[in-house]
Design a protein that fits this description.
The chain is an alpha/beta fold. It folds into three domains: about 10-195, Class I glutamine amidotransferase (GATase) domain (Rossmann fold), CATH 3.40.50; about 205-395, Rossmann fold (3-Layer(aba) Sandwich), CATH 3.40.50.620; about 415-505, GMP Synthetase, Chain A, domain 3, CATH 3.30.300.10. Helix content is about 30%, strand content about 25%. It has 13 helices and 18 strands. It has a nine-stranded mixed β-sheet, sandwiched between helices. A five-stranded parallel β-sheet has the order 12-11-10-13-14, with helices on both faces. Strands 15, 16, 17 and 18 form a four-stranded mixed β-sheet that branches. Helix 5 (about 235-245) links the parallel strand 10 and strand 11 (about 250-255).
Amino acid sequence: MILDQNLDKILIIDFGSQFTQLIARRIRELGVFSEIVSHKKINFKQINNSVKGIILSGGPLNVYEINKYSFDNKIVNKGVPILGICFGHQILSKLNGGKVKQSRHREFGSAYIYKKRESLLIKNFFKNKKFVDVWMSHADQVSKLPKNFDVVASSENSKFAIIENRFRNFYGVQFHPEVTHTENGKIIIKNFIFLICRIKKNWSAKNQKIKLINNVRNKVGDNKVICALSGGVDSSVVAQLLNKAIGKKLYCIFVNTGLLRKNEEKQVIKTFKKKLKMNLIYVNAEKEFIKKLKNVSDPEKKRKIIGNLFIKIFERYAKRIKNVKFLAQGTLYPDLIESKSVTGSNTSKIKSHHNVGGLPKKMKLKLVEPLKFLFKDEVRKLGLELNLSKEIIQRHPFPGPGLAIRMPGNITKEKINILKEADFIFIKSLKDNGLYNKIWQAYAALLPVKTVGVMGDNRTYEYLCLLRAITSEDGMTADFYDFKKSFIQMISNKIVNSIRGINRVVYDITSKPPSTIELE
């Protein structure tokens, strides 16, 4: 269903593409609200006047195998401009009488497209060039053009690379304009939303702040709210947002799980209780969490245990504060996407987040998640609007389950202490060398492997420490940061020489995809 009926938007109907979230990002970067909904959960009756345009995403499905997808065909008759991308291009063509079949020559990766005619969709896209380099990813293609459609551009293997029916405002592109590999791809999206849909800019950090504060006030009313505060960017922004919205009706509960970074609890108390003057309840539940996680090695079980225990602690402390009905969390859009199947398929779910998939089904408190449709960079901009310090806003993401998912295998107090020290050395070195703000996320992990080493004349048999540092726009895709050899050597020497328990350091150079940013 559509989740926000009041704000003008571009609605993205998702068919399972790995790039769908990038479409939403590109639109929001242009200052327009966009919203993603599964093709299985939307019908034409839900398309109201707030929807100014529709984008049909790509996906792994086949148009000619209709039993593999569900889509309310009446949506195309709502009189709303539609842009189909890849699979969306094919389904739009088929619904209008065109034909789709398996390609004789599949296209994956870079391809050149050539302009055949002018169109609003490609204004300034070719920029006086005969061809543009785009990113293809398809094994099927439109084989027969629908009636009243014209060809705008073609590639060597895709005759109908861009098509249009200008009278109905239907447009289809076989390639992916949302990815950075497509030259001038953002121009296609910009032309669709502004020249064709004629939507006005309505999405900025300032607008978000006002809207979210009002939403919180309307939802909460006179009730009190407890906020799950971790000290990370997400929960810090949520806490400050609620502080602005409801003031002293907010009670922040900071739970020390024993799985935090070194000295983290001291920093949180100093910032939120002493500096921002919030109602802060500090709970040292280290022993409780470690006991529950004893001999648990499965990563999903770890997340579930941590999520359940978090809620039990919150509910325990909520009883001591009268009239508490809500729990506020820093859940973000990528958390929802990775924790829940957007398309409804079993394979779409990547992992449970402790504050999404890890929550117990029978929870007494109602959730308040004001950031759940925002990406990380949007949250940071919002935090600045809320007058949070850059020190908080620029902090690297830190997972809710904390160090539990950075030590695959069983969790022990000894391993936690070793990992805290290694992570502290790594992060401090990044800051000391002016690298911290160039990196999206960095951390140390302790692998469940011991290796032989030699220190002096003695044999050692200690743990393997993995370092990870990535660059990213939003955490949906990522690449490793290319450190200088001298820096990596320096970090390795510091960790091995300073920490008893580690005798080997490795650096993770895997991108996302195929891996995730965290290990578990």
